[in-house]
Amino acid sequence: MNTLASLTGELALAREAVAGRLRGVDPDDIPAQRKAYDAFAENDPLPEGAGQSTIDLGGVSSLGVLPEGASGERVILWMHGGGYVVGSSVSHRGLGSQVAAAAGCAVVLPDYRLAPEHVYPAAIEDCVAVYHAVLAEGVAPEQIVLAGDSAGGALAVSTALRLKKEGAATPAGLMLLSPWVDLSCEGWSYDAKSRRDPFLTASSLQARAKQYLGAASHDDPGIDLLNADLRGLPPTIIQTGEAEVVLSDSTTLAERIGAAGAPVTLEIWPEMFHVFQARYPMLTQARQAITRLGAWAGAHLRS
Amino acid sequence: MNTLASLTGELALAREAVAGRLRGVDPDDIPAQRKAYDAFAENDPLPEGAGQSTIDLGGVSSLGVLPEGASGERVILWMHGGGYVVGSSVSHRGLGSQVAAAAGCAVVLPDYRLAPEHVYPAAIEDCVAVYHAVLAEGVAPEQIVLAGDSAGGALAVSTALRLKKEGAATPAGLMLLSPWVDLSCEGWSYDAKSRRDPFLTASSLQARAKQYLGAASHDDPGIDLLNADLRGLPPTIIQTGEAEVVLSDSTTLAERIGAAGAPVTLEIWPEMFHVFQARYPMLTQARQAITRLGAWAGAHLRS
């Protein structure tokens, strides 16, 4: 497990790269944080021959990427991570488009409003608006997978629950990478995995939660997804790393979505860190995980 | 979810069939219980053209089944369920051989010693002996998947932990169908799913636990797998039904095996009952689940 051997080679390099992403950047300088976060990933390769364009969807600027040979009528709607405060279509277009290529479909990455300027529920409202705008483009609900990593995983679930509340048709599936749904940061892994996680800590996440929540509480029924009514969600896949403090978010969410009646697949990847899939340019397991996500989405999206 | 529609057709028939399996049989007449349990499944079809033979492995009578065209050098070692008290190679040869056919390998089903005549740890000792005997036949550890359903799932995990303790090479994988590992029967689903489960109850399971434990306690370190040292286990897949009281055994076990460092896949199947895969002759989801188990085993067994 935590042996030297397991921390050498590409895994050590990937951990170090991600851990150093925001090092030396003033935590209180939000624009600088966002700039560094985007810069870290902006050159991650898109699938060869992929086309991209910025589009307005329901008033939300979004990036669409269509891998070569993929169907533009099937869409992964990807809510990017970044603790509700950083991250964008630029930081996540690589990851999103690689999963889309593996699935043989398009990906759409909304630049939903970020905290602290825009607190809960602004981001959720934006994601719901984008979903409806994608429908208005002629894509059927059965041709959409809602995806998200970290905070974006929570946004994907929240969006699906809003749609259910509205009586709207649910998408074909939910695809969640290391979803961060426990804004209290009190799950068992926040402490138990604190020495194995290369960059996330309960306190850094609590700071992000505070920025996002504004006047709301982490146990607000619209926020606390682990205790929400999760009935009516579509088939769900969750991938999580073993070496991350938000591991228990994934295991608990999988259990509760499954108990509420959706088909659930949970994958726990040994030694992997938070949203390890994004390091596909350098990490074998990231590419393996993306292949599996693509196969899952491809199998759940209607042609 | 619990709608009339979901309980009509083949699912309703499958639930009723399984629930009626031991109806009217005196619970205290163990031989009659075993006879009825075997009779229920003994005519479940083997894969067409499969050959079967009874073999002695380490002093334990076992049934080997080789599906047509499958490799006899790759083996699923299947610990049958039945609450440690009933069940046999006869009741489980259908299920085991169908998974083996899907994986393209052989299956071996040990008739380990049953309770109450033989209490803990007799069954585990038998399974360990069979594993070593399979190795002695020239099959490598990387060519063996340890599988088990219900109580057999716990036996598969216990066997792997014994092998680790001995310093023996671990098998290629663990394949667990609705594993029953919480002999206290106190997990959340024992109550929460009591109205959805067509035949298992906390009290019926507690009775089985009592027969198996003899003088041991359910929190004996050799029994309480949820609190055991689970490091060093091989890649693990767990399938569970949503409509069964032992659902929390699967979710908790998946979380703990994954947190301890093994690659884990957990699948939660909506509306499915305990070891629903065994009803493959009549239930679509059973056949789908078997296909997935076979693909997983095939991918993890060394050629």
Summarize the structure.
The structure is a homodimer of 303-residue chains. Chain A is α/β, with parallel strands linked by helices.
Explain what you see.
The first copy, chain A, has a single domain (51-300), classed as Rossmann fold, CATH 3.40.50. By secondary structure, chain A is an alpha/beta fold. The first copy, chain A, has helices at 9-19, 30-41, 89-103, 122-136, 151-166, 188-192, 202-213, 247-259, 284-300, and strands at 51-57, 60-66, 71-79, 105-110, 144-149, 173-177, 236-241, 264-269. Chain A has an eight-stranded mixed β-sheet, sandwiched between helices. The first copy, chain A, is globular. The longest helix of chain A is centred in the C-terminal third of the chain and has 17 residues, at 284-300. Chain A is built from nine helices and eight strands. At the A-B interface, helix 8 and strand 8 of A face helix 8 and strand 8 of B.
Q: How many helical stretches of chain A?
A: 9
Radius of gyration of chain A: 18 Å
At the fold tier of CATH, the topology name of chain A is Rossmann fold
N-end to C-end Cα span of chain A: 42 Å
Which CATH class of chain A? Alpha Beta
User: By helix and strand content of chain A, what is the structural category?
Assistant: alpha/beta
What's the β-strand tally of chain A? 8
